Amino acid sequence: MNDAVKMFSVLAGVTTTCGLLLAGAHDLTRERIFSQELRYTKGPAIRAVLTDATNDPLVDRKAVAVSGKEVTLFFGKKGGSVTGMALETAAQGYGGPLHVITGFDPESGKCKAIAVALSRETPGIGSRITGNAFTESFAGLDTATFAALRKDGGTIDAVSGATISSRAVCSAVAAAQKLFKEIRPSLSGGRQ
Amino acid sequence: MKTAFIDFTRGLWEQIPPFRLVLGLCPTLAVTSSVTGGVGMGIATTFVLVCSNVLISLLRPVIHPKVRIAVYIVIIATFVVFVEMAMQAWAYPVYQLLGIFIPLIVVNCIIFGRAEAFASKNNVLRSFADGLGMGLGFTLSLAVIGLFRELLGSGAIAGKAVFGPSFLPCTLMAKAPGAFITIGCFLAIMNGIDLRKRGIK
User: Fold this and answer.
1) Contact (CB<8Å) B70/A11
2) pLDDT bracket for residue A190 (50, 70, 90)
3) A150 within domain boundaries
4) pLDDT tens digits for B121-166?
5) Which of A76, A175, B36, B92 is most enclosed, with most CB atoms within 10 A?
6) Whole-angstrom distance, CA of residue B4 vs CA of residue B8
7) CA atoms of B156 and B164, how far apart (whole Å)
8) Which residues of B touch A23 (CB under 8 A)?
9) pLDDT tens for residues B52-85?
10) What order of strands is seen across the sheet that includes strand A97-104?
């Protein structure tokens, strides 16, 4: 009995201490890890979408609340005026979650460009959705046409052999379009 | 002090991982396709090895023998998560390169082996020396394997191309078989040196 109590107390003591230390370390590094993740995983995709921006869109970001959820908007600015806004959405791809950054024109609300920030699609097959040939077909989608594959009644041609991955990108972009439509009126009174 | 020094140097040649102590082959195969990956992994492993060796040696009197394995795993895992967080916060590109192999340090046999075979039986100073020696030995090995594989497999050193554009990389060396071939060659050379030392030809 005494032996069991000793075993228990040693293990409980060690695990509790370790747990507390880890929680502390997590709190200390959380902010920094978040900014590093932004810089290295989303950063390149955001810059690819907001091509004409001269500022750092990662710094000029704003969290907006849309229907109970918090969405981070990234602003691309040139000479003081906003030239583009980007936001991230995710959809279920073939190999796991697929994160897409969609850039919008603040004037017309049209989709400017998209870029895949994170994907785990099959190399050589599903991974081709990250190529320019496919992503460029999303440019110019207006506020009324949500992204959808041609075989789903939309305007986007799927990458052959990668329908699931292509459809995932479409649903992520469509989700971004819907979000942007909701956010737009609240952005400093819409049009300036 | 002298025994601690012997413990330290043991990890650098006599029992250098992964060559002599044929443990920790999984990370060795996976991360040594470049020097940067190898060194990053080596440093992370060294940190965990030194910290867990010292702590386990310190806690020797209180660790109940029946729960020692569980306690070791908790201690090692804690340090590994520290390393993972630190890497994410201050060396994100290295973290991206090593990915899943950082959390997998928890199950690296070298660390567990040293905890069970050395730190649980020796004092703090000797355990520290042993951890540092083994860690540095591992880092050195990974760096050398990485250098060799990166040079032949992608014609570069730490990401910088060293040969002209006409260089045809030997892709085999960048893949897992290349790591086996490299380790085999180095092991043969090391055994050759040892045999020669002992006067056997």
Assistant:
1) yes
2) very low
3) yes
4) 999 999 999 999 999 999 999 999 999 999 988 888 887 888 877 8
5) A76
6) 6
7) 10
8) none
9) 999 999 999 988 888 999 999 999 999 999 999 9
10) A61-66, A69-78, A81-92, A97-104, A111-118
User: Would you say B152 and B169 are in contact if contact means Cβ atoms under 8 Å apart?
Assistant: yes
The pair of three-digit structure tokens given for residue A132, joined into one six-digit string: 């320019």
By the CB < 8 Å criterion, does B70 face chain A?
A: yes
DSSP A119: -
Domain that holds residue A175: 47-186
8 Å CB contact between B104 and B26: yes
Beta bridge partners of A70: A65
Residue A91 DSSP class: E
| The residue to which tokens 């020097």 are assigned | B35
**Which of A164, A174, A169 has the alpha carbon at shortest distance from A99?**
A169
What's the pTM value of the predicted model, to 2 decimals? 0.76
Which of B71, B82, B93 is the closest to A14 by Cβ? B71
Quick check: is A66 in a domain?
A: yes
Q: Is residue A40 part of a domain?
A: no
Distance CA A40, CA B90 (A): 12
User: For residue A3, what is the nearest residue in chain B, using CA coordinates?
Assistant: B64
pLDDT tens-digit map of B18-42: 888 788 888 888 888 889 989 999 9
For residue A45, what are the CA distances in angstroms to A40, A130, B108? 9, 10, 35
User: Is the ipTM above a cut-off of 0.85?
Assistant: no
How distant is the Cα of A99 from the closest Cα of chain B, in angstroms? 17
Say how many domains are in chain A.
1
Q: Is B86 on the interface with A (CB under 8 A)?
A: yes
Q: Percent of chain B at pLDDT above 90?
A: 49
Identify whether A12 is part of a domain: no
| Distance between A32 CA and the closest CA of chain B, angstroms | 5
